Amino acid sequence: MTVRIDNCFETLKLTNKKALIAFLTAGDPNYNLSLELIKSLPEAGADIIEIGMPFSDPMADGPSIQASSLRAINSGHKMEKTFEMIESFRKDNSHTPIILMGYFNPIYNYGVNSFIKKIIDIEVDGVIVVDLPPEEDNELCDALEIADLSFIRLVTPTTNSDRLNKILQKTSGFLYYVSIAGITGSKRPEMNEVETAVKEIKTKTNIPIGVGFGIRTKDDIERIGTFADGVIVGSVLVDIIKNNENESAIKDKIVKKVREFASAV
Amino acid sequence: MDKLNSYKLGPDQNGRFGIFGGRFVAETLMPLILDLEKSYQQAKEDDSFISELAYLNKYYTGRPSPLYFAERLTDYLKTAKIYFKRDELNHTGSHKINNCLGQILLAKRMGKTRIIAETGAGQHGVAVATVSARFGLPCVIYMGAKDIERQKPNVFRMKLLGAKVVPVRSGNATLKDAMNEALRDWVANVNDTFYIIGTVAGPHPYPEMVRDFQSIIGKETKEQILDQEGRLPDQLIACIGGGSNAMGLFYPFLDDINVKITGIEAGGMGLQGDKHCASLTAGRPGVLHGNRTYLLQDDEGQIIEGHSISAGLDYPGIGPEHAWLKESGRVQYVAITDSEAVEAFKICTKTEGIIPALEPSHAIAHLINIAPNLSKNDLVVMNLCGRGDKDIFTIAEHLNMEI
Q1: What was the pLDDT predicted at B19?
Q2: Which chain B residue has the Cα nearest residue A68?
Q3: Residue B311's pLDDT band (boundaries 50, 70, 90)?
Q4: What is the number of other CB atoms lying within 10 angstroms of the CB of residue A264?
Q5: Mind listing the pLDDT tens digit for each residue in B238-270?
Q6: Could you tell me where the beta strands, DSSP code E, fall in A105-159?
Q7: Is B201 on the interface with A (CB under 8 A)?
Q8: Does the pLDDT at position A248 exceed 70?
Q9: Is A105–B301 a contact, with Cβ atoms under 8 angstroms apart?
């Protein structure tokens, strides 16, 4: 529901806070631990949870998130299990917005109508599909709009003002500003440029703006919080899964990292 | 049902061939491919672009390539008159150069200063490295680490030509991963970089543009067969990986409905298991690398790595126009196994004194299979799109021979 995301940003605004949007891949490194990690995010300070639907060929993602997708696929993860995880999460949490992020092929393969029906059912709030630009709106975005689900758009440093206007016409929830021309988890954004770009977009829309790609430090998060409405962290979290064998160490470190980031927004 | 007036009208303004094709790319790339589309539409109407490309095709590549009557193979098969379109005689040894020259001229027009590309067998990589050297632009070729191992001569050629060859270890370390990596490079270097895609796949306008540059194969064939035989052929046959040589031969003949057209996919070790690359005969529609097309994928929509003895056919997708031609029924698609291809390779080499690449060996194998059903008066044109020097190590291994 779009309203859950809207409420989240409005509530944060009342206390002059910004949203921390935490990304993890469903099923990484296995179903049980992944579910536990996702359940631990709200208490650690994540305001919105972005859950990656694994895909074998994530073209817009860097090595960290690609490896995370492959860990999930290799552990036998399936789309249905992503839905099961969300159902289980919703049993104890009805307020944290959940956004599904991924690539179109697994959704197309599942069937667009079945997919929408299912995510309404399990109370997903929005969807990000990296390889569906506005030119392909009739594939999924139009149907999501009718179903009152947010289709969260990406705006990038290459988006010119004509495209921006087109993108803003059909955006709900929040706008995802991609801080670099590049892939996730790669180069560090040039903060002054990001600030200029976000301020420019803000002259054209009231919709909240989240900034992601290459955000790894508390300092960057603090800085982004001064001009944007939310910040998205992903690669830095999934790297913890890659770099640790011990399951309780993974959980401790991810919770600690999210707490640290939450204190900066 | 509506009857089509022409099979040559695609793609539409959204880059679609029926439901296939499209522009399934990240927002970062959208402005670039729109810009590319605009530049290409302008260039193809521009006399100076057309004449420069024609000049290079003639004097650099050596076009037109001969249409050769394969007399000894015809005698051996006791069947229809078989013609080879000799695109293996092109500079760099395959049809890939036709497309690379077109795209690098476009890159120059657009003021791009850096070239990137993906390659599987290395034929496209060599062609890109060649045109980059010719036009003095730095180039980076992404190649699966596994392919680098099995295609060493081409890797060496690319390096001699001044290209930087980057091994791709992500995913399965073959062609589709090389394409992912090239797309990642492009996203990160949007201002100065031109991505030369090697086949009729990828986001619009690539499938159309690559087809147009390769169509010189079919245009020449039409003139040559009319000149030599006074009539159009009864059949066209070409191998298909991504489908660029086939699209190039087929396109000018699509509306000549009496010409039967067949595309030959890599059947690998047979279509029963997953050791093949027959996306059209054994896959189903999906979305990958910017377009909707037939793909090899599992129940979850995860892309499956194909297998073929020929690294050039080893791609889990296929150009979207082929997907549309299959569904429209205009072109038939058939799979040929590794072993059939090797047998055909041997027969062609011994009867014609031409060592074909393993890719067109698949097309020759199909010709051998259908020979008993053909009439002596039939004319068949097969696109001999690449030469086999690069494959001698693979063949030796398959036949347990020492070089």
Answers
A1: 97
A2: B171
A3: confident
A4: 18
A5: 999 999 999 999 999 999 999 999 999 999 999
A6: 126-129, 150-151, 154-155
A7: no
A8: yes
A9: yes
Tell the residue number behind the tokens 């496209």, with chain if given.
B124
CB contact under 8 A, A133 and B25: yes
Selected residues 190-249 of chain A with any CB under 8 Å from a CB in chain B: none
Q: What is the mean pLDDT of residues A232-248?
A: 95
pLDDT band at B3 (very low <50, low <70, confident <90, very high): low
Judge whether A105 lies within some domain.
yes
* Catalytic, out of A6, A61, A125, A229: A61
Domain that holds residue A222: 2-260
User: Which one-letter amino acid corresponds to residue B188?
Assistant: A
Has residue A222 been placed in a domain? yes
Q: Contact A128/A100 with Cβ under 8 angstroms?
A: yes
Cβ–Cβ of A59/B188 closer than 8 Å?
no
Q: Which residues contact B59 (CB under 8 A, 6 or more apart)?
A: none
The vertex-B114 CA angle with B12 and B103, nearest 5°, equals 35
Does the pLDDT value for residue B165 go beyond 90? Answer: yes
Average pLDDT value for residue range B85-97? 98
Q: Which of B27, B31, B180 sits opposite A57 (nearest CB)?
A: B180
Residue in B23, B32, B303 closest to A57 by CB: B303
Interface of A with B in 53-72 (CB under 8 A): 54-60, 62-63, 66, 70
Q: Encode pLDDT of A174-184 as tens digits.
A: 999 999 999 98
Please state the domain count of chain A.
1
Where do the domains of chain B lie, and which CATH numbers do they carry?
Answer: 26-57+96-210 (3.40.50.1100), 62-93+215-398 (3.40.50.1100)
Is residue A33 domain-resident?
A: yes
Q: Interface pTM (ipTM) of the complex?
A: 0.96
Contact yes or no for B287 and A156 at CB 8 A: no
pLDDT of B1 above 50: no
Phi then psi dihedrals of residue B196, to 5 deg: -90, 95
Closest C-alpha among B197, B263, B151 to residue B36: B197
Whole-angstrom distance, CA of residue B153 vs CA of residue B389: 9
Of A28, A47, A50, A229, which residue is the catalytic one? A50
Looking at residue A40, which CATH number applies to its domain?
A: 3.20.20.70
Interchain proximity A55–B288, CB inside 8 Å:
no
Contacts of B188 in chain A (CB under 8 A): 180-183, 186-187
Q: Does A61 participate in catalysis according to the annotation?
A: yes
Domain-embedded: residue A265: no
Give the helix/strand (H/E) hosting A257: helix A247-262
Q: Min CA distance, B204 vs chain A (Å)?
A: 11
What sign does the dihedral A40-A45-A47-A48 (CA atoms) show? negative
